[in-house]
Amino acid sequence: MGNVLQFDETKYIPKAIGDGRIGSSIDGIEKVQIPDDLLINNCDDPVSAIVESTYPDFFNHSSDIDYLQQRAILDPTLDMVESINEYTVSLNNSPEKTYLTSDTVCMSDNSLSALEHVHTPEFLNSIKCSGIPNHSITLKVGVPVMLLRNINQSSGLCNGTRLIITRLENRVIETKVLSGDMAGQKVFIPRMTLIPSDTKIPFKFQQRQFPIVVSFAMTINKSQGQSLSHVGLYLKKPVFTHGQLYVALSHVTSRKGLKILVYDDDGQITNEARNVVYKEVFHNLDLRQVYLALSPVRVPEQTRDFY
Questions:
Q1: Domain tally, the chain
Q2: 266 with 290, same domain?
Q3: Which terminal residue of the chain has fewer beta carbons within 10 Å of its beta carbon, N or C?
Q4: Are residues 112 and 136 in the same domain?
């Protein structure tokens, strides 16, 4: 099979992306050529360009639930996701409200007294890691957010559920559910005590904050389970884990809803995207089980037909 990503309108996410049959592989890394009609080729401001392609006519739809629930920008890295979200929030003309965390070292740590002197509140506030909000989050009515914790699983309020903000109070945030069986239902989000699960942090600390993050854009890893009609894939930095490109492409439900902005190692716009696939893991193994075992994200339900 060649290097060009071939799409079909009925099953347009090629299995060949998932099992690495497109492009020439070097240590599990391949270059896949993206069709011209899917590319964003010319732009002075890449963040503005990917937002405009994914959220066209945003000013007239900034509080439109149907418009927002079907769209998201995906990126491999948390830093770029935060930059895109900050920019897109700034386009919303509603009044903003900023919420700060209260961060402390966990009481269960045996060295609490010493750690309190070493890890000051200012230091704890500066820590950024996946799975918890930043110390400061700025929100507006009409902004889509994603839950970072399970609140009520029986009601569908789980980690990864997307909501839209309808009112901002000091102790509670009023939202409406964007998707699923609870779509359109009013939900109040309280502050919660959150403990990061990041094993790279050599001590435990906790923060008191609303368990949400803005979700105009989200990391590819965090996008699991989302079904979207419009996806902007922003690859300022390339994908870096097994199956990540396939998972990013699998979220969009039609070819016409996909746009890709990709850069090469020299920071120039290109038509080639990196695809990381370790082909040796497929030997004598079921493809879907390999993805479930090795991919950092769960394969979405709607992609099962592609295997």
A1: 2
A2: yes
A3: N
A4: yes
Query: pTM value?
Result: 0.79
Query: Where does 58-213 have alpha helices with state H?
Result: 65-69, 78-91, 112-118, 121-126
Mark residue 160 as left, alpha or beta (left: phi above 0; alpha: psi -120 to 50; beta: remaining).
left
C-alpha span between 106 and 233 (Å, rounded): 38
Q: Which of 128, 124, 125 is nearest to 99 (CA)?
A: 125
Distance CA 107, CA 157 (A): 28
Candidates 212, 213, 210, 206; CA nearest to 103 is 206
pLDDT tens digit sequence for 151-206 = 988 878 899 999 999 999 999 999 999 987 888 899 999 998 877 776 666 667 67
Helix (H, G, I), strand (E, B) or coil at 15: helix
Q: Write out the DSSP string of 67-81.
A: HHHTEEEEES-HHHH
In a domain, 302, yes or no: yes
78 CB burial (10 A radius; 0-12, 13-18, 19+)? middle
The verdict on residue 92 lying in a domain is yes
Residue 279 included in any domain: yes
What values do phi and psi take at 237, rounded to 5? -115, 145
3-state secondary structure of 218: strand
Whether 203 and 235 share a structural domain: no
